[in-house]
Design goal:
198 residues, alpha+beta, three-stranded antiparallel β-sheet, globular
Length: 198
């Protein structure tokens, strides 16, 4: 096999960089659709601030109906828990964006944060879990989704395994206040994670 053929067959760890050069990427919100941006836990904020000193990196957003509905779509069998965690009278943090919708951490080479410091949602994307089943978001903005025909090809492209993704998803659930696995009881301290409007 030639070096060129090997190179074509090997996974591409730079797919996110290529995506940022070619398209709008998952790191850019359509202006006006900020309500559907994922929340950011205090733990995730602190982890980011250990890597960068950027006081404008976060913004506070209301738990609007579009926001809560979007979280419910992500956890369709846990809608009551989502309502408890994100009541209308409270707010949540999210990553700040520029006027064009780009995340403040989106640079010319992709995300400027080290992978381990990124929010769990960013580390997982485009993968997601529905119960125990690994799935992925079928957004046309994602170059990996456009280039891969199967879930296995996507796992190879990102050089990641299902077990690692499952661990990240469990950590995201805990960070956002959900129990580590679907069906488990809600943790008592989960309710104090988000800011009151009063």
């Amino acid at each position: 096999m030639t070096d060129e053929a090997k190179q074509k067959k090997s996974p591409d760890p730079h797919v996110c960089k290529r995506c940022s050069e070619l398209s709008s990427t998952c790191c850019r919100l359509t202006p006006g659709e900020e309500d559907v941006c994922f929340p950011l836990s205090q733990m995730e904020r602190e982890r980011i601030l250990e890597c960068v000193v950027n006081t404008g990196a976060f913004t506070i957003a209301h738990n609007s109906k579009p926001f809560v509905d979007n979280i419910k779509r992500m956890f369709p069998r846990e809608k009551e828990l989502v309502d408890q965690l994100f009541p209308e009278c409270k707010q949540h943090f999210r990553l700040a964006t520029h006027s064009d919708g780009a995340c403040v951490f989106l640079g010319t080479q992709g995300c400027v944060l080290p992978r381990e410091a990124r929010p769990y949602y960013c580390q997982l994307f485009p993968f997601w879990f529905s119960g125990e089943r690994l799935t992925y978001f079928t957004t046309s903005d994602c170059l990996a989704v456009r280039e891969c025909r199967t879930k296995l090809q996507m796992l190879e492209l990102f050089r990641i395994g299902k077990a690692e993704l499952k661990l990240l998803h469990g950590r995201l659930r805990l960070a956002w206040g959900l129990p580590p696995k679907e069906g488990m009881p809600l943790l008592e301290h989960a309710f104090s994670r988000y800011k009151s409007l009063k």
